[in-house]
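*Target chain*
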Amino acid sequence: MPAAAPTFSTLPRHIAVIMDGNGRWAELKGLPRHKGHEAGARTVRTITEECARLGVGRLTLYAFSAENWKRPKREIDFLMKLLKRYLAGERPTLMKNGIRFTAIGRLHELSPEVLAEIEKTKAITRENPKMTMTLALNYGGRGEIVDAAREFAGDALRRGKVPELTEDEFAKYLYDPAGAEVDLLIRTGGDHRVSNFLLWESSYAELWFTKAFWPDFGIPQLHEALGDFAKRDRRFGGLTER
């Protein structure tokens, strides 16, 4: 009989993942880099389905950073084609698992073809109740804060006055105001940095790093991260009563 699926005493409401190591995974296997990105897309399906099954509320994946435009044009073109193929191909999986899709970032700078697939997937999955899966595309954490500040300033000009600014008020101007703060931020690929990802939302996130490249990050590794998270004492600057 298969082993029983683990249960976790505490489950993060919002998991964010920096999916690093696709290219290095391919190079170590003597494969072209695009094979790593294709394998990484398959991992996205595996991890997304498992998070939904476990009852995670939100999953945000760093799919394409604002800095990724510096990569060779050939690789960028492939990534955009892969993204369009993924969005079209994963709609049945998203619907089967009750997963709502959305995207954040400077989306207006993406091609009309990519934007059309994003909007179609968002529309088809809009009413799905189980989990929200977000792709961060053309995304940068500092850029998000700057864009939010611009939106706030623009609103103030239109109103003719500057309202009182609190953290809660400012958060309304982020790319996804409904997005909860990140509880667990996972990074694959061996590096120990957050790389300009969800800087505002991850201010109190628990960090979990692994040397595993993203294509090798499977359900056992996800469960390991969740088990470690469940053991953490999250005090948010306070003290735990004893």
In short: The chain has one domain: 16-140+182-231. The first strand starts at residue 14 and ends at 18. Residues 16-140+182-231 form a domain with the Undecaprenyl pyrophosphate synthetase fold (CATH 3.40.1180.10).
